[in-house]
Design brief:
Length: about 525
């Protein structure tokens, strides 16, 4: 069972780790996808900017007063060409002939053939071809007004550190530039605008299109692998860290489980070896101050002297499945002590705590009956306390409670108010006493919301015909309040802490003489 929870913890840890990994990976892909989209846009906007700047430059030349092809005119053109790396030459046209120009030109000057396009924007374009080739590079010519420029198309894409990315620039259907220059790229018509994740080909493809001056398209392609490569180190570091955490978590759970397991074994040994002790906490009649009995509380001191709290070791025995052995051990001591107590204090009774598992079969009931009979004690010498969570809706527990009462035991519901039992639910069980939980008694005289709940609990008990015992009474003020509200019995440090048998006998003697 304990190892079961260790395995569950491991599976939970691994699942959590996987979930975190998946989210990190998805975020990485999303970031990269967004970046790939913005890559096409930024490359496209830059190319567009070059065209617009060039058009403005050419318009400026047309406005200049310098006599055409004069030294002044050519100097102005030269300055403009030098300051723009993508401009290889600037020329002046008269009618349909290039008259003069500057730049890196063949000896006979540029003699471009017929223009390829004349756009409504006033731009005239020559696609790169043999007649625009200078120094082995076919240039893109763009004329506006009476001037033109020869642009090195390779410089239209500022590629920067592209890594495994590929990008291309199209003007109309013509691929003007690409990086790398022979990059395999889909044509713009085959790609929808924006960003597309093409898992089949393992790429993210983005397209940017603009038609302000010329119709341009930029396609950028990014392999999904490169997303992994870029984020691999972060993911691996995260994974390693996560694995270390899961391993630590598992070791911790394993250690805890082993500790619990060895603790359970030690407890089982203590129960079998009759090393479980008990203490008695007096229950007092509030109207008279008489002690009418006590609650039996189990005590366990470990082999190394450590005193274990009962709510810890009772839960451990429940989890490990031998709580009935603990109940029977406590019962044996209580019956033995009762024979002594009853000689001096006839009519005294003790309350025995039953765990939910004690109400699942008849073992506790039959052993209790035979033990009492063997000791010559009447059944009313032992009252039974059942926690609210033991009042499960089972026919067995209902029948067993009925049997206990038929045999003459009073049955109390313990820690009432800490569970979710309603009045109508309680009605379905045959009970005698309702023990009001300490948390409600604590709230007496305080402004806490629970301070009102106790009033309802008392009324509820009354309407069901149940006697009431207030648990955890610590002050005279609480006692007074409980008396005023006609609560029958009280138990708590105000009267006494749990006592060994000798201490309890002393307590009873003092109360008798008081
Ligand atoms: N602060 C404070 N505490 C007070 C006061 N009056 C009583 N108590 C404590 O409240 C607990 C009352 O027992 P419980 O509600 O049945 O709660 C018990 C009961 O549920 C369980 N338990 C103890 N013995 C047995 C047993 O033999 N069998 C089963 N099944 N459960 C047991 O362990 C729980 C804890 O027991 P204990 O540690 O002995 O703690 C006891 C007692 O020492 C008070 O005025 N102030």
């Amino acid at each position: 069972m304990l190892f079961g929870s260790a395995i569950a913890a491991l599976v939970g840890g691994v699942l959590l780790f996987a979930a975190i990994g998946w989210v990190v990976w998805r975020e990485s892909v999303a970031t990269e996808t967004a970046y790939a989209g913005s890559l096409a846009a930024s490359l496209g906007q830059r190319a567009e900017g070059i065209f617009v700047d060039t058009r403005d430059l050419l318009a400026g030349f047309d406005r200049s007063d310098a006599p055409r092809c004069s030294a002044d005119h050519l100097r102005t053109l030269q300055q403009a060409a030098v300051s723009r790396p993508y401009i290889r030459a600037i020329g002046y046209w008269q009618a349909s002939e290039r008259r003069c120009g500057v730049g890196f030109l063949p000896p006979e000057g540029l003699k471009p053939a017929r223009a390829d396009r004349i756009y409504d924007t006033g731009v005239i374009a020559w696609w790169p071809n043999k007649s625009t080739e200078v120094g082995g590079v076919q240039l893109f010519l763009m004329r506006y007004g009476d001037h033109d420029v020869a642009i090195d198309p390779r410089l239209l894409l500022d590629l920067g550190p592209l890594q495994q990315r590929r990008a291309g620039l199209w003007v109309e259907k013509l691929r003007l530039a690409a990086s790398p220059w022979d990059a395999e790229l889909p044509v713009p018509d085959a790609v929808s605008a924006g960003v597309t994740v093409d898992r089949g080909n393992g790429v993210v493809v983005s397209r940017f299109s603009r038609n302000d001056l010329l119709p341009i398209d930029v396609i950028a392609v990014e392999p999904l692998d490169s997303v992994w490569n870029r984020h691999a180190s972060t993911l691996i570091a995260g994974a390693a860290f996560g694995l270390v955490l899961v391993a630590l978590w598992f070791l911790l759970i394993l250690r805890y489980s082993r500790h619990q397991l060895s603790l359970a074994t030690e407890l089982r040994r203590a129960v079998a070896g009759e090393h479980i002790r008990v203490q008695y906490q007096p229950v007092v009649e509030l109207a008279t101050g008489h002690c009418i009995g006590a609650e039996v509380l189990a005590r366990w001191t470990r082999d190394d002297g450590e005193v274990m709290r009962p709510d810890v070791f009772i839960a451990l025995a429940e989890e490990a499945g031998f709580i009935q052995d603990v109940t029977l051990a406590v019962m044996r001591i209580a019956v033995r002590d009762l024979t002594q107590l009853r000689r001096e204090f006839p009519g005294i009774a003790v309350n025995l705590n039953l765990a939910p598992a004690d109400l699942q079969d008849e073992r506790v009931g039959t052993t209790l009956a035979s033990s009492l009979a063997a000791a010559g004690l009447p059944p009313d010498a032992i009252k039974l306390e059942i926690t609210e969570r033991a009042l499960v809706n089972s026919n067995t527990s209902r029948a067993l409670i009925r049997d206990f009462r038929r045999r003459g035991h009073e049955v109390a519901v313990d820690d009432f108010g800490t569970g979710y039992s309603s009045l109508s639910y309680l009605q379905t069980f045959e009970l005698d006493v309702l023990k009001i939980d300490k948390s409600f008694v604590d709230a007496i005289g305080k402004e806490a919301a629970t301070s009102q709940v106790i009033v309802h609990v008392i009324e509820m008990a009354r309407s069901l015909g149940l006697a009431t015992v207030a648990e955890g009474v610590e002050t005279a003020e609480q006692e007074r309040w409980l008396q005023e509200h006609r609560v029958a019995f009280g138990q708590g440090y105000y009267y006494s802490k749990p006592l060994d048998l000798e201490g309890y006998v002393e307590f009873l003697r003092r109360r008798r003489t008081a």
